[in-house]
Amino acid sequence: MDTHYLNTDLDVVTSVDPAPLVAAIEARGGSVMAVQPEGSGWRAVFEINAQHDLPEPTIHALLDLVGSLDGEAGAAWTGAQVRELNIGYDCGDGPWGFHQSLSPSTLARIAAANVGLRWTLYPERSPV
User: Fold this and answer.
1) Where do the domains of the chain lie, and which CATH numbers do they carry?
2) Is the N or C terminus of the chain more exposed, i.e. has fewer CB atoms within 10 Å?
3) Per-run averaged pLDDT (10 residues), the chain, 128 residues
4) Cα 102 from Cα 79, distance rounded (Å)
5) Would you call 66 exposed, middle or buried from its count of C-beta atoms within 10 A (0-12, 13-18, 19+)?
6) Which element (helix H / strand E) includes 20?
7) What pLDDT, on the 0 to 100 scale, is given for residue 1?
8) Rounded distance between C-alpha atoms, residue 78 and residue 88, angstroms
9) What pLDDT was estimated at residue 128?
């Protein structure tokens, strides 16, 4: 199997009820992957419904989505302790020197939204 991009999740940790945030993101074309208690608050994981083959267009779609939040959902977003894009890859045995990048304009949008970046690399597994 070759190494390839899987998807980008948006991870949010908030001390307030995430229900308004969940509803707003679902109404704007996002999906809720998980909502679970964490510490004295909540962790919510979101994706967009229309996945892309590269991280950059997915990231732009997620930033467009959260940029349109207002009311209680906007307050939950801006008050969150963690706002993080988690870029996931399946790692295989090729190709040699796999590369993908984010443009300076995308990095500027991420920074302006006060969002962190995380990468998750999933190892190739032998069939059981």
Assistant:
1) 4-122 (3.30.70)
2) C
3) 93 94 95 93 94 94 95 94 96 86 97 96 79
4) 26
5) buried
6) helix 19-27
7) 84
8) 24
9) 66
Tokens of 100: 């993908």
pTM over 0.85: yes
Q: Which amino acid is at 38?
A: E
Query: In what side-by-side order are the strands of the sheet with 41-48?
Result: 30-38, 41-48, 4-14, 82-90, 116-122
Distance CA 20, CA 12 (A): 13
Task: State both tokens at 55.
Answer: 């991280």
Q: Which amino acid is at 118?
A: R
Contact between 58 and 7 (Cβ < 8 Å): yes
